[in-house]
Amino acid sequence: MVKPxxxxxxxxxxxxxxxxxxxxxxxxxWSASRPGATMPMLMKVPxxxxxxxxxxxxxxxxxxxxxxxxxxxxxxxxxxxxxxxxQPYIVMERIDGxxxxxxxxxxxxxxxxxxxxxxxxxxxxxDLHRQHVIHLDVKPSNVMFRPAGEAVLLDFxxxxxxxxxxxxxxxxxxxFGTAPYMAxxxxxxxxxxxxxxxxxxxxxxxxxxxxxxxxGESETLRGMRRRLWRDPPPPRRLMPDYPPWxxxxxxxxxxxxxxxxxxxxxxxxxxxxxxxxxxxTARSQRLKRDPWTTVLRRRFNRDLTWTRAEPxxxxxxxxxxxxxxxxxxxxxxxxxxxxxxxxxGRILAxxxxxxxxxxxxxKQGRITLDTTLDAHGHNKHIDRLVALRHWAEPLKLGDHRxxxxxxxxxxxxxxxxxxxxxxxADHILIGAPQRSxxxxxxxxxxxxxxxxxxxxxTVVRPSRLGDQDEPPSQVQAxxxxxxxGPPGSS
Amino acid sequence: xxxxxxxxxxxxxxxxxxxxxxxxxxxxxxxxxxxxYVGYGADPEWAVATVMDLVEQGALAVLGNHDNAxxxxxxxxxxxxxxxxxxxxxxxxxxxRRFLADLPLRLEDEDRLFVHAEASRPKxxxxxxxxxxxxxxxxxxxxxxxxxxxxxxxxLYCMSATAKMTAFTPRADxxxxxxxxxxxxxxxxxxxxxxxxxxxxxxxxxxxxxREITYCRAPYDVEQAAAQIRKKxxxxxxxxxLFLGK
Lengths: 490, 246
Fold this sequence. Notes:
Order of helices and strands of chain B: EHEHEHHHEEHEEEEEEEHH
Number of domains of chain A: 3
Structural class of chain A: alpha/beta
Strand content of chain B: 15-25%
CATH class of chain B: Alpha Beta
CATH topology of the largest domain in chain A: Transferase(Phosphotransferase), domain 1
CATH superfamily of the largest domain in chain A: Transferase(Phosphotransferase) domain 1
Structural class of chain B: alpha/beta
CATH architecture of the largest domain in chain A: Orthogonal Bundle
Strand content of chain A: 15-25%
Number of strands of chain A: 16
Oligomer: heterodimer
Distance between the termini of chain B: 33 Å
Number of strands of chain B: 12
Number of domains of chain B: 1
Largest sheet of chain A: 6 strands, antiparallel
Shape of chain A: globular
Number of helices of chain A: 17
Strand order of the largest sheet of chain B: 3-2-1-11-12-9
Number of helices of chain B: 8
Shape of chain B: globular
CATH architecture of chain B: 4-Layer Sandwich
Largest sheet of chain B: 6 strands, mixed
Distance between the termini of chain A: 55 Å
Largest interface: A-B, 18 and 18 residues
CATH class of the largest domain in chain A: Mainly Alpha
């Protein structure tokens, strides 16, 4: 294989090479331009000369396969891929600004900032997982942010694609990743569990909020393996003012057993964006590490919980949806609310990892400044929260599967749509328009939600068997725009 | 160029018809047939006549062990396959038997090699069941990509420049890029008697410009294919297994 030397000013397949941007262990990054192209671009070139790490070639091949298939704001756009026969390269969108690594000198960061970073990265991971890819190297230097705030994930050289050959798996017996962030199961060679990315993000959140790396920086396999049985000190032991909700989330992310972490990145993002709704378990209160008896049991009886067959990535995501149910409480108990509860109950009964977000819109006047108190001096917002919990009570879900949200908005349809978008809901349940004149006038809400929702919408109607000329009791519309999103559960 | 590749048709008229129609809708410009046109299924005469037509129109076709068994009593087959071949001998005319006897064991087309079973000893009809056999097959050839059938279960293998093997079970309809720095062995599923637990007929589309391989599935009228097998007095298990895809 000829090994051309790239330098500033070289032309490769019509791309003019600019400055050397980064000289990494496995690849170099150059700025690149092409006549007529306005998007700033980078050319990534692997190090494949004599004496270089053979992993460089294989991980570059993986990235060449994966990056062109990815889309959306959370990844750099792939422009072109160059053959190994001549000059291997990937030309991709250049994201301006520093990586998250630039924030490391400022840590520990304020808790709210850490949660915000967590929401953005978890949202990006959710998008990646829905595209069948597990990153497997989440760390500050692989995260950037667009000007609008969305996190962008970089470097898919160690990633696993659920539907493509895993060249890294076959090539090397040793685990690949970045030592402080690598999940315990990755150390055992498991490369197909999306919760490994949640572990890495948990390490990042722990580090950014405490200034301490939970599993140290040991690069030796022996040092890294300790995380298979030894848990890190709870953040509250290091930071007395550490919020219990944040400790709950961070410690759940870095659970040794993958199944004990959040089921999906979307559910993690949801928890981080609703601190008051986080169910505080014993995790949130812990001040000490696990006792030695527990550690020894994990050390020598790992088969109690470890190694079981994993279902495909898409199946895992589909099994843990976020279901948003829009409950209208304006006129007291309506038959449609009972029907909504039945429909929600059916979905949750089949999917133990699903969670239900009950949403009510507290309608605001367009002009008048509404008071938060009703005629009797009650706080309307609190009343609605209470009413939502009351509505959901017969479902017996428990706090880890149920959240309630009152949205104050002028336009109910927009509020529901925005909630679904922001929380990456997989499915919206909404009542059908009522038959009354007022109901028909208000009925535009469900119509607009069906038309514009980013996910499956089920319109629920109380069964009126016996009435004539009635449509069936449920109408379902699927508008899933994400690639291979969960199918409509009709 | 889009090439449609079919293996192990096994006289299943309903399955092969469905595959051909679907591949043509996908824009197939060329057809390659990897052997075992007869055996197991109820329509050997139609199958061989169709293959002969396709070859006349430019398709490539190689020999399979069941095809060879029609004219040779030396082929070792399992009991049910033996019954089916004995019956098949009585169905095919002289020109059809001659066509089968004249088929080559392997064919090369640019950097592609087509063969029915493992390529190092094609006449031994070795199953490619693991990376070890795949490595032996790849090492025995100079082709960039080899296509074979015989085992009735889809699999894709590649060998890196450092001779490391990767084994992969392809997902239907997901194109996989055949990376140029490696050499590849594509094991096709079967058109006429799938054995990977999915009863739909299996074939492959190769996009030579994009260097992408896509494993495809075509649903077909299994009831009809099974009914014909029973009607012709062939072993009933040959009909039953079509419903299960195993």
